[in-house]
Amino acid sequence: MYKAVQKLKSPNLSEVVRDELIRLITQGILQPGTRLNEVHLAEQLGVSRGPVREAARELEGLGLTTSRPRLGFYVADFTDAEIVELYEVSPWIHQALVHDFMTYSDAETCGAILRDVDSIATSSVPDFSETLLQFRQRMLDHVHNRYLAEQALSLYRRFYIVAALVRAEDGARRMKRIIETQRFFWTALAERDPSKAIEIMQADSRYWLQDIPPRFSHADDPRKGRT
Amino acid sequence: MYKAVQKLKSPNLSEVVRDELIRLITQGILQPGTRLNEVHLAEQLGVSRGPVREAARELEGLGLTTSRPRLGFYVADFTDAEIVELYEVSPWIHQALVHDFMTYSDAETCGAILRDVDSIATSSVPDFSETLLQFRQRMLDHVHNRYLAEQALSLYRRFYIVAALVRAEDGARRMKRIIETQRFFWTALAERDPSKAIEIMQADSRYWLQDIPPRFSHADDPRKGRT
DNA sequence: GTGATGTAAACTGTTAACAGTTGACAACTC
DNA sequence: GAGTTGTCAACTGTTAACAGTTTACATCAC
Q1: B226 at interface of A, judged by CB pairs closer than 8 A
Q2: Do A102 and B10 touch (CB under 8 A)?
Q3: Whole-model pTM?
Q4: In a domain, A66, yes or no
Q5: Are residues B147 and B175 in the same domain?
């Protein structure tokens, strides 16, 4: 009986490989632009190339890998412009989040979840990535819109990839900063101040982009475009 | 030389199958929940099962298919709640679009693009889906943030899937309504009235959800949650 | 030395085959 | 007749092998 239930959920190899690849990528063990050697990966994971290719293809759909015909799969790499775009969208996702899809009590719960994260703030960077992602997933569980939560998670994963590319500072400082921002964000919302929460996210975007030369003008401001 | 350039871009079978599957799904030829028979599809497309599986996996990452171990791939199906969630997120994406990532002159260009769509308004539904998607891609080309544009496209594709599930009205009327809304939206923006454009999208969401029983309360309104 | 050419190893793209599972249906029991 | 068991066809999961391409490197001409 137990076995039967397990069987229903028992994953196939593609899913195992996919999760392992996501781990390797989001933890920064596989750096952006790295080529995925199918044979090597297959041997390392004890499977054949089929499941490896399927996993890499799914990640391509998720935007975590890219592929070039006859050259194989690569860990997604981001140009400066693309990194800016990610950080530009982030405040909008969070705005939707706090305005329409979370209650103040949800915010309090998330703040409480975040309190537990302190203990891991000093561990290694890969462990930190793994744990923070889990915490973030727990927080996203409180978003009353699964689709938006999925978008947010997808954005977070990309942030982990570009982590090495923005604000080249040491891991400990990075970790501290990330947690503090999260704390500020949820505290502001729990204190019934959604505008402040949004401002925090906007400021955070600017902070991480500090090492990236600003775009000349991503789009004329519509308000300035008035006749 | 030409050949060499072509070769660089020449797709592999997975990509061909993927594009064909996207077409079949967004045109409604493969209905939500339909099981994808790998052998059958492979024969029909003249390839083996490998590329078919890879394509289906990539679509899983894109959210257009789902998979259940040992049972295979299915065209993504959406519960009423999930459909509501999609339409809830739509106005936010468009808000970001018009507020930060498009100029008024971009809006005018999109309006002009849309004018050409009139001719196809009476063709068959699959043709309409195909053509409208192309027009939408052309319009999204004017968004000054590729990541956001990709999110919007992904949302549109899902709307094509759920088309059969919301507002069960005849195809001609549906097509007319979709084009009119688009026209209103871009006109409002071109006329320097972003708030009106957003309102149009919000009203459109409500319209399509009319046949779906409203959720009791997707989230207490934060503003009501004030102490 | 510099650049072109040839060659072999490594790698990807694809296929076909095998193993194991699922689902449908007939046969059987009570 | 209702429910159980057995059986078989259809299908998925996985692997291994083959073909074709790319890359690196050595060889050769100048």
Answers
A1: yes
A2: no
A3: 0.91
A4: yes
A5: yes
Query: Are A52 and A45 contacting, i.e. CB atoms less than 8 angstroms apart?
Result: yes
For residue range A39-53, what is the model confidence (pLDDT) as tens digits?
999 999 999 999 999
Here the CATH number for the domain that contains residue A183 is 1.20.120.530
Do residues B63 and B115 both lie within one domain?
no
Residue A179 near residue A133, CB atoms below 8 Å:
no
Domain-ending residue, one of B75, B103, B118: B75
Question: Residue A70, CB, less than 7 Å from strand D?
Answer: yes
Report the distance separating Cα A137 and Cα A132, nearest Å: 8
How far is Cα B197 from Cα B123, in angstroms, rounded to an integer? 27
Nearest CA in chain B to A72: B12
Same domain, yes or no: B208 and B118: yes
- CB neighbour list of residue B134: distance below 8 Å, 6 or more residues apart: none
Out of B12, B54, B146, name the one closest to residue A82 (CB). B146
Interface-testing mutation among A78, A85, A106, with chain B (most B C-beta atoms within 10 A): A85
Q: What is the pLDDT of residues A166-209, one digit of tens each?
A: 887 788 888 889 989 999 999 999 999 999 999 999 999 999 99
| B99 and B188 part of one domain | yes
Does B213 reach chain A within 8 Å, measured CB to CB?
no
Show residues of chain A in contact with B102, CB under 8 Å.
219, 222
- A38 CB within 8 Å of a chain B CB: no
Instruction: Give the residue numbers spanning the domain of B68.
Output: 13-75
Give the separation between CA B102 and CA A220, rounded to whole angstroms: 8
Residue A104 has what pLDDT?
A: 93
DSSP-assigned beta bridge partners for residue A36: A73
Among chain A residues, the shortest Cα distance to B90 is held by A148
CATH of the domain at B29: 1.10.10.10
B186 with B84, same domain? yes
